[in-house]
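Input sequence (298 aa), recorded before submission:
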Amino acid sequence: MKRKMLVSRIGQCLVTLVVFAVVSISAQTVDGDVEVATVDGEQVVKIRFDPFMDLCRGTYTEPSAITSTLYCLYDVRNTHSLLSPSKVEVLHNDPFVALIHDMVYDSEIEQLQSLGDATIKRSGPTNDSWLPVFYDNHQTYTLHDRDHPVVERLTRRIERATGLSCETAEDLKVIYNEVGAYRTGDIDSIQTKEDFHRFSYSGDRLATVLFFLSDVEQGGYTIFPKLRVAIPPRKGALAFWYNLKDTGEANPLMKYSICPLMSDEKWTAKKLIHTRGNELRHLCRPESAPNPDSKNTY
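Predicted structure, token format:
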């Protein structure tokens, strides 16, 4: 009996040590965001986790040192913009991330969605049975400029708003998401040999354009964890960012994720703009590259 009690006490001590070790390790990995308080004579350790989750909830608050550098503007860089300037909201300066408002209209959104009626399958009851049928919560279809005038119109609108050429850009990809859909961290620059050979004629993916075609009540944010930037889905808006550094290399800071969709449906459309044809519009600056150490050159 005494032996069993001794083993039980030893087990309790080991559990206590493990819990203490976990708390200690966690406290060391949050960059000092640890608060120790005394409640009823006992110490309570509150750990603030990385704001990744706060970004998805939409509760993350940027420091005033960053927000004070952000701004909004009416972009009037070309003749068309004088009549209808782009409403630009800068979300991050370097690397550049912006949200351009009122870039696609309700009638155009309805047309884009109707073009995918033969492809998209929505979950829910079918005609044959009252039982719900669940399909993949992430479905896509691509549209070329020649498929419909609204697609070509959006391409021309992207060129005016971004100042970049879409001559070698990829086809517009329309994305339909249902509840639970998400995407883990990724960057839109070319990462594989297959894509490198596939797009050898057009170069790397210079920039990304993401249309928001629906409003969402909960979730579905596009977040850049390393930049601490969260973009909520706003119907009619366009998110724009560069995937490459000035040297033409992939920028690891532009790794982004799509937060889980908590309610409703979500429609977006993505256009990937390549470097070929934009050499004079977005200059590559090799001088920005780090100088090699002469001692390590061979």
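Checked by second reader. Residues 1-8, 13-32, 294-298 have pLDDT under 50 and may be disordered.
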